[in-house]
Specification:
The structure is a single chain. A hairpin with a 3-residue loop joins strand 4 and strand 5. By secondary structure, the protein is of the alpha+beta class. The protein has a twelve-stranded antiparallel beta sheet. The chain is globular and about 50 Å long. Helix 2 runs antiparallel to helix 5. The protein contains six helices and twelve strands. Homotetramer. It catalyses: a fatty acyl-CoA + H2O = a fatty acid + CoA + H(+).
Length: about 290
């Protein structure tokens, strides 16, 4: 098992404090990050797991709607307070607040459902993209960049990411378009728990979702004047898939303005099934952009 995956599983190993007021209280560690800020995907995934701990095992999470309220400190643990808003015959609703230093850094609402049959359709997966085996791994690309953050990402990220057409770590190659695709897969095998795999997808969904905004304007991660932060995040899980097998994450940005960028994502398995949909708005500011 890789160090990255071990660290990822540790972040999901929440401990129940035993406290019972009107909420269920859990605590979880933070992953060390080179910029000192909690990765948004980490706190999303931990919030999913905290909510899961309060729901019947037969119910799986199918949607989340969350707001990032403050930057988190990656040197500090996080407290998660789960409010059991509603339990119906088929659906359960939970609100999770993530706290550090007594103030919330994330507020999210989750919906759970017992598995049920029904009508089905989906948007088809693009078929004209290279397979992940044809593309360089994130570790191969990042290891060539002489920067401490790149070296940390190369060693400690929990997911492999392979960009189509190419990553935008230092530069934006080719046409400045508002869409891209990324093959993603957890590094190492995960337990056979559907909610854990959905939490892992929540983690990975925050990695590159705003990159179509950046790509459209020729903005790379290495740009010194770039200031960016996730504002809100929504996700819908449509079908089950393993996060430790290759998934295609297609992304596009319909709009940017007012210092904010908006992006949509679709996650498919290699069989072409639509697994999840994602939406995020983020703050994005640079002194000048193309």
């Amino acid at each position: 098992m890789s160090d990255a995956l071990s660290g990822f599983l540790t972040t999901l190993d929440l401990a129940d404090t035993g406290a019972r007021t009107e909420e269920d209280i859990f605590t979880g560690p933070s992953q060390s990050m080179p910029n000192g800020r909690v990765f948004g995907g980490q706190v999303l995934a931990q919030s999913v797991i905290a909510a899961v701990r309060t729901v019947e095992p037969s119910r799986v999470v199918h949607s989340l709607h969350g707001y990032f309220l403050r930057p988190g400190d990656s040197a500090l643990p996080i407290t998660f307070a789960v409010d059991r808003i509603h339990d119906g015959r088929s659906f359960s609703t939970r609100r999770t607040q993530a706290y550090q230093n007594g103030v919330p850094i994330l507020s999210a609402i989750f919906s759970f459902q017992t598995e049920d049959a029904g009508i089905e359709h989906q948007v088809e997966m693009p078929t004209d993209l290279p397979e992940p085996e044809e593309l360089p791994s994130a570790t191969e690309v990042l290891s060539k960049i002489d920067h401490p953050i790149a070296r940390t990402w190369a060693r400690e990220r929990a997911f492999d990411m392979r960009h189509v057409p190419s990553p935008i770590y230092l530069s934006v190659e080719g046409e400045h378009i508002a869409h891209q695709a990324v093959w993603i897969k957890a590094l190492g095998r995960l337990p056979d728990d559907p909610n854990l795999h959905r939490a892992a997808l929540a983690y990975a969904s925050d990695y590159a979702i705003l990159e179509p905004v950046m790509r459209r304007h020729g903005i790379a991660w290495g740009r010194p004047d770039l200031k960016m932060a996730s504002l809100d995040h929504a996700m819908w899980w449509h079908r089950f898939a393993r996060a430790d097998e290759w998934l295609l994450y297609t992304q596009n940005s319909p709009s940017a303005g007012g210092g904010r960028g908006f992006a949509l994502g679709s996650i498919y398995d290699r069989g072409g099934r639509l697994i999840a949909s994602v939406a995020q708005e983020g703050m994005l500011r640079v002194a000048d952009a193309d």
